Amino acid sequence: MSTPIQFQITNPARTLATPFKTVNQAVPSKSSIPILEGILFQLTPDGLTLVGCDMELWIIVRVGEVKLPIGTLLPSGSPSVSFVLPKKVADAILRLPDGQTLFEFHPERLNLKINYGNGFKNSQTHQLYSAKDYIQVPEVQGEEFQFSTDLKRVAFAVNSGNIAGVSPAFTGVFINFPDRKVAASDTIRFAAMDLTGEAGGSFPEGMPSIVLPVRAANLISGMDEPALTIAIDADEGRAKLIQSREASKESNSDSGSYTMISRLLPHRYPDLKPLLSQLENPPLRVEFSAAEMVGALNRVALMLPDKTMPKFTFTPEGFIKITAQSESGQFKEDVSCQIVGGEIPAGETREALFNVRQVTDALKHAGGDRVVWGLTGQYGPSVIRAADGGGSWDGGGSNNSGDGWLCVIVPGRLVEKKEEEGQEKGSGKGKKS
Q1: Which domain holds residue 66?
Q2: Does residue 140 lie within any of the structural domains?
Q3: pTM of the model
Q4: Same-domain status, 104 and 231
């Protein structure tokens, strides 16, 4: 019988809590392949590597401070101590008390004995999965370059499954390297911004446009570092993204380095240029506080039945009047604004119905409190930009110094009417155009 392989971890619950949480983002809660519900554990004298995957997304995290003692005899032909922790075993490790913990891995029995407490008098033994049966981490062949765009600022606009019958491309984030744009849409709303590389630099020649699944895009946005290394293997339909941490002088550890490999969606995305050119110069533009508007919309949302939209009335006096009416009562609130492009003649207003969530989502991702809302005409799309967010609007709401972020929202209806004294219309279920 072979000698067990021993290693120690100080305060394993605290040391492994964040790495386990990170890789678990790629681990399915239920799978027809039970081993995929676990975490691949690979330990060498250089450090610990954890892997989680669901065959579409791989997350690899390095824990530099957990190392195999130098001189440890490894199984024949193996470069590391490798096994797969079932979910219950990972959970058990996260419940261990603080202190030094001795782990004993028995390759022949394929089990792990955990010894803890004063003098290691307490113990528990768990069965494991074999690392040989785990899905191999794919190689991604492609030139690496820097990437620093916050994809979450457009990812909110993808189709999350609530709209049927649309192309699978709309379930991902479109990254257009040739035109330096990122975009997302569920066919009802649309968000886009400029694509930035390291220090605003260029990307490798011939980089194709890709559609990255929204799950991967959101995980990228959750990484700590603003700049990531990315490699794209268009032939295999995968992308690799790396958040690296330099080894510190004190610990000589690069602990926390994070690699994600994601499949790409094999679908073409619609051409963005016609829509973007249509929104270059909206005839009416108003600037206001995003926080003030979100507060008002959060209050009106409490009164609205499902799929009912409040009415937005834009006035020449510098107000956006929000009104709604339902069986539970009436709502009326004014949000101050400044007309920064076009005009509303005295005695007239501009009205539209807008979806509360769509407007709120856009304002929360605009990147600043001052925003500009552009209206293009009756039944036309409206567009929200950060007031200092760049773009090509000439004056009033843009200084061309930002990241070009915008969000397009289609109104339920958009009409022009004379103000009628003493009369206020309520909300409606407006038809999408």
Answers
A1: 5-133
A2: no
A3: 0.80
A4: no
